[in-house]
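TL;DR need structure tokens for one chain.
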Amino acid sequence: MSRISGAARLAGVVGDPIAHSLSPRLMRFWIEALDLDALYAPYAVSATGFAPFVEGLACSHVAGLNVTLPHKESALALADTASDAAKRIGAANLLTFDAGKIHADNTDGIGFLAALKPASIKYRQSTALILGAGGASRALVHALLTSGISRLILANRSRSRAERLVDEIAPMAAVIDWDRKDDVLAEADLVINATSLGLKGVDPLKLDWKRAKPGTVAFDSVYTPLETEFLKGARACGLTGIDGLDMLIGQARPSFRAFFGREAPILPPVRPALIESLGDEA
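>> reply
TL;DR here they are.
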């Protein structure tokens, strides 16, 4: 166990729900590997309580917060300053505090591209179908655009929200109705679940993967459970499936540096420890 004193560096993750989050286990693994005087805690906070919660912590000695569903867009709105990435995306997953001031950043795209790297996707020759239009989706859309993706198709249960995302950050993208997502599978080289569907306790996301073309890559931002119905269906059809765990790890490295002033260690590897902590959910 790492040491904890009255001078410990404090940080955490806020969301609703938050019990599923592996961020505390991930950060604790790195804290203990480096034997830091630090603590990282989960906070379940509702939408109505989010602003006062963050503003209160900003005036304390807490270093900052990671932000997850459903607060990423609200997090940016609370910030006094923001990175260019957070501004362009319109959402933040990282808040750091300094003398009562709040700075917002977004590292989701960094983690997303790191998770996809083994798939060797040729972005400039590829079409991506993105399911979802919330804060997470905005970050992934931005990452794909910066990688030179050839074509984007966006589907969301609320079409108007998808259209707003396109208007604000991705004017080259096409929006389709949610019930047409299976119809465009054959056009996609990369299919992304950026919704909460499939999360433990939430309805699964199922697609007619038989309509996808060979070589399609399926990416699920969900990691609890690790093997979602979305990924099971894709893999059953011989497609490559990538879970959200490596995205979690990749986006957490800049956060760890911001909170604790140290680089997260590469060794020992953290992924096996996170899978072990998932137990039957892996």
